[in-house]
Design goal:
CATH class of the largest domain: Alpha Beta
CATH topology of the largest domain: D-amino Acid Aminotransferase, Chain A, domain 1
Structural class: alpha+beta
Number of domains: 6
Largest sheet: 5 strands, mixed
Distance between the termini: 45 Å
Radius of gyration: 29 Å
Oligomer: single chain
Bound molecules: ligand D41
Number of strands: 24
Strand order of the largest sheet: 2-13-10-3-9
């Protein structure tokens, strides 16, 4: 991770960038960045989220692989979840995978004298397309769906039916009455080239690569367009099936072939990991000669019984792995470094390269992430650099060939002024907030201080503001936003609401009707829900889900705007960093003005209303004391204080003797508490929090009920990653109802860890400590048993 930013900032930046790309890619069908760049952002986000599972939010793009669903496609719930595949990037990863499989199956390992038991694996190329589910009932194709996030996809039945190698009716006999086939829909290289030639001829834009082309084609609302695209299916497995199937993976695929479904011609069996390796090498040799793009090979334990025994974890089967082909590297020259400005003003260095072919693609740019990365690489303009472009990752500069540094090489300097607006560039030391304490962390970030006065930031802010999930102003694409900003017609989101017919009709590509349509769309956006509006404001770190939560819990913009960070953290999943972002956003004079203007210009929030009782229910005096993070006052101490004194005022007023009477409160703790509240600023802060909590309708609940006798009494559980079937808060509530304590951190005292997808360091730690780890399925079963 770039150390010049906090993880939360980078994550927020990545999410909004990815969301913007997704929208263009999936909804507008005009990718704004090469696939590889998109994937790099995505992978960086995934890696960061794995490192910081507490920052994973349900609206993160990682939680819905596949991008925004078009409103016009129906949703399909996958009864059997569509799992994802773990990756092996090198031989060691593959050996580790094989080791885990053999351990999981209790097979003897090898030694010097014997090879040990070997697992039979099926091997197939990993096609670079789009995973789909095809449902056959009584042999008839009744539904096609995208994988979506693995649980829910989109109904693309009409489009799937246009794919020529998908049978609409199964051949032969013996198929289960309900059979859900899974496979990859892809566009062969030749078809892709022909399609792109046609696109260019007809004045359209070529697709960046076959996978984009396949995904874009399947997401066409008009199946006629899909039909004209050269798509193909390759089946790789089965989801639901009501009936007998062969007991090996290869057996199942062969059965599918008998029933008319295309499977890979390269399907092979390998005995043991050594043969897998050989297969990988052989396919690697063949890669360029294949008619379709692949980005690796997939190995699967062949025996279905063994697959069952191994099961899955965090939505990845333990019995399958994708072995990726290595990144391809080339050498080229760094011609210069340009600086881009993001939505939040962050200034990012971008390498301009002497164009070079990497894995068949011309690469002329590479991101340098940030100045720390520049420093880490020690790269200078004029240097010869190693660039890597993996099949699915954006070009990266791996390093510098120092011996080739020319005499004229010059260092990379951050501009003193924003390259877009000329405002000052400010270097901010990153501040890490944790548990109420602030500490300066290493690294720094460069930001243009121009905010909405900076055209780059303004454009991005407006693009976000009008996007579908925000104010949803139809017909206000990026190009139009750019024109509006460039012509000085719009200087803030509020200005959208004073655009005139005359101003719009002048824009490139506008005529009478389109102008009226846009004005209507702007008008129609004047009544957003509070949640949409909050999301549209583009508060750093506040995605759609957080916006919804704020709206639901606090019910009015005014309450949200005046909420103290210490109060906001009472909301589930709002951490201190986000709370501070929200607070400082609304403290900002300029932001207040824009919001006031929006209201003056007719933006009326819908459904502003009451406080939600759910929010009011979560405050306790003990909780408040705990959240103040007074040294030596932990949650039990806080609880005893709350029980003894019953009110914050009483605690603040308590003298040393009073405090010493609190059962089992140590002298150190009492002294610390006294010292804390002796500082009037602390007492005031605590009172302000309490006052606001009350104002927001909280009442101090009586302290926790006794949990004795409940099935999970005395146990401490940790939830990490995301759960599919319930929110983390629901899971927490259910566990607590059973008497368990739910903690945020893993330690030797932890009883059980529940790990969903995206689980990261907590899961690692749990494994290191040898703790019981449950996946969601097992967890649910467990809950079911306990509640039964
Ligand atoms: O060719 C592929 N892209 C491919 C994808 C494949 N040959 N096999 C696959 N097998 C699975 C499991 C083992 C989980 C049934 C897959 C995928 N999954 C997959 N594709 C996209 C997400 C997961």
């Amino acid at each position: 991770m770039p150390s010049a930013q906090t993880a939360a900032e980078r994550i927020a930046e990545l999410r909004s960038e990815i969301d913007a790309h997704n929208y263009r890619y999936y909804v507008l069908d005009e990718p704004s960045v090469p696939d590889a760049e998109y994937d790099r952002l995505f992978n960086e986000l995934k890696a960061l989220e794995a490192e910081h599972p507490e920052l994973v939010t349900p609206e993160s793009p990682t939680q819905r692989v596949g991008g925004a669903a078009l409103a016009a496609f129906g949703q399909v719930r996958h009864e059997v979840p569509m799992l994802s595949l773990g990756n092996a990037f090198d031989e060691q990863d593959l050996l580790d995978f094989d080791r885990r499989v053999r351990d999981g199956l209790d097979l003897p390992g090898g030694d010097l004298f014997s090879a040990g038991a070997e697992v039979e694996y099926s091997c197939e190329p990993k096609l670079d397309g789009l995973a789909v589910s095809l449902l056959y009932e009584n042999g008839h194709l009744v539904r096609g769906a995208t994988r979506g996030d693995g649980s829910t996809g989109e109904d693309i039945s009409a489009n799937v039916r246009t794919v020529r190698n998908i049978p609409l009716k199964l051949h032969g006999s013996g198929w289960p009455s309900v059979l859900e086939v899974r496979g990859e829909i892809y566009m062969p290289k030749a078809g892709f080239e022909a399609l792109n030639a046609r696109q260019v001829e007809s004045g359209g834009k070529p697709f960046a690569n076959p996978r984009n082309a396949a995904a874009g084609s399947l997401r066409q609302l008009d199946p006629k367009i899909t039909a004209a695209r050269p798509l193909e299916l390759c089946a790789y497995g089965v989801g639901r099936s009501d009936g007998e199937l062969p007991d090996t993976h290869v057996g199942i695929l062969n059965a599918l072939r008998e029933w008319g479904l295309p499977i890979s011609r390269e399907l092979k069996l390998a005995k043991g990991v050594v043969e897998c390796r050989a297969y990988y090498e052989a396919i690697g040799e063949k890669r360029d000669a294949l008619a379709y793009e692949i980005d690796g090979v997939v190995f699967k334990v062949n025996s279905v019984a063994q697959q069952r025994e191994l099961g899955f974890r965090a939505r990845e089967p333990r019995w399958a792995i994708a072995h990726k082909f290595p990144a391809r590297e080339e050498i080229t020259e760094l011609l210069g470094v340009e600086f881009q400005v993001g939505r939040t003003g962050a200034i990012t260095p971008v390498a301009r390269l002497k164009p070079v072919q990497v894995a068949g693609v011309t690469v002329s740019n590479a991101t340098l992430h940030n100045m720390d990365e520049v420093a880490r690489l020690g790269v200078m303009i004029g240097d010869t650099v190693i660039v890597r472009r993996a099949g699915d990752v954006i070009p990266q500069i791996l390093g510098v060939i120092a011996e080739r540094r020319p005499a004229h090489a010059r260092p990379v300097h951050v501009p003193e002024r924003c390259p877009v607006c000329g405002s000052a560039v400010e270097r901010t030391q990153l501040i890490k907030r944790s548990k109420g304490r602030e500490s300066v962390s290493e690294g720094s970030i460069y930001r243009c201080v121009g905010r909405l006065a900076c055209q780059a930031q303004l454009k991005q802010a407006i693009i976000h503001f009008v996007s579908r999930r925000a104010m949803d102003i139809d017909g206000l694409g990026d190009k139009i936003v750019e024109q509006l900003v460039d012509r000085g017609l719009v200087g803030s989101p509020a200005d959208l609401y004073c655009l005139s017919y005359e101003q719009i009709v002048e824009l490139e590509g506008f005529a009478d009707l389109s102008t009226r349509n846009l004005l209507d769309a702007i008008d129609a956006s004047r009544k957003p829900t509070l949640a949409r509006f909050i999301f549209a404001l583009g508060i750093p770190d506040v995605g759609e889900e957080t916006a919804k939560l704020l709206a639901r819990a606090l019910g009015s913009l005014d309450r949200i705007a005046c909420a103290l960070p210490d109060v906001l953290v009472y909301l589930p999943d709002v951490g201190l960093e986000v709370a501070h972002e929200i607070h400082s956003f609304f403290e900002d004079e300029h932001n207040r003005t824009v919001i006031a203007q929006l209201r003056e210009r007719g933006v009326e929030l819908q459904g502003e209303g009451e406080l939600h009782p759910e929010f009011a229910a979560c405050a306790t005096l003990a909780g408040l004391l705990d959240k103040l993070n007074i040294p030596f006052i932990a949650s039990t101490g806080a609880q005893r204080l709350a029980e003894r004194f019953g009110s914050l005022d009483a605690i603040i007023a308590a003298d040393w003797l009073d405090l010493r009477q609190v059962e089992r409160l140590t002298e150190k703790a009492a002294r610390s508490l006294r010292d804390y509240f002796d500082k009037s600023a602390n007492a005031e802060r605590a009172r302000a929090i309490e006052a606001q909590l009350r104002e927001f309708g909280m009442h101090w609940e009586s302290e926790r009920k006794s949990v004795e006798g409940l099935p999970l009494a005395g146990q401490t559980w940790v939830l990490t990653g995301t759960l599919d079937s319930m929110s983390r808060d629901d899971a927490k509530a259910r566990l607590e109802a059973l008497g368990a304590k739910v903690s945020g951190s893993v330690s030797a005292k932890t009883s059980v860890v529940v790990a969903g997808p995206g689980a990261g360091s907590k899961l690692t730690k749990a494994n290191e400590l040898g703790l019981t780890v449950l996946d969601e399925e097992t967890f649910l079963r467990h809950l079911g048993q306990l509640q039964a």
